[in-house]
Amino acid sequence: MMDEFLFSAISLLLLGLKTNGLALPRVDRIVNGEYISVTKVSYMLSLSVNSEYTCGAAIINEDWAVTAAHCIILFVNDSVSINIRSGSNKYDSGGVVHNVTTLLYHEKYNQLNNDYDIGLLKASPPFKFDNATQPVKLPGNESIYTSWASIAGWGYFIIELLGYQADIVKRSEIRYCAKSE
């Protein structure tokens, strides 16, 4: 199953962008995506800074989640309130809200080209696993390649200078494209 691959988890993280406090209208986004139950993407987390949705993240174990470094780098040494929401298909309600006690990002992260764009979040309280909250399934040591991946998130993009964001998580299948393409 495609959402067993780490690529899927990291792909969904790249969808989130900071909304800068905009009141966004409800519009169906991930393009060609479909609304899905949180039980289909039970690893999915909503990352908020000072109660504003910022990015997606994925559960990796009881204490830690993975996100994109570009989502957290500005807040590593800042005194802001950072939370992650688990067990909900909405980015701003339902489920369980966890405080983020530790932010880490890859030491080689490059803001100019987004190389090594990966970060970690420590959750408090720890995640309690049930049908709506589970760690992402990662592949073993075998090398797996597929030309398609599954992405999920509350995608955000701009049309005619207006920002739009889905309020319920969506999933879509996308074709893998190498960075060099």
TrEMBL record:
SUPFAM superfamilies, per the entry: Trypsin-like serine proteases (SSF50494)
SMART domains, per database record: Tryp_SPc (SM00020)
Keyword Transcription appears in the UniProt entry: no
EC code(s) of this entry: 3.4.21.4
UniProt GO molecular function: serine-type endopeptidase activity
Signal peptide (UniProt feature, chain positions): 1-23
GO biological process annotation, one example: proteolysis
Catalytic activity, as annotated: Preferential cleavage: Arg-|-Xaa, Lys-|-Xaa
InterPro entries named among the record's database cross-references: Peptidase_S1, Peptidase_S1_PA, Peptidase_S1_PA_chymotrypsin, Peptidase_S1A, Trypsin_dom, TRYPSIN_HIS
Tagged with keyword Hydrolase: yes
Coiled coil stretches, renumbered: none
Entry keyword set: Digestion, Disulfide bond, Hydrolase, Protease, Serine protease, Signal, Zymogen
Domain of life the protein comes from: Eukaryota
Name of the top EC class for this enzyme: hydrolase
Residue intervals of the Peptidase S1 domain: 30-181
Family: Belongs to the peptidase S1 family.
Protein name as catalogued: trypsin
Classification lineage: Eukaryota, Metazoa, Ecdysozoa, Arthropoda, Hexapoda
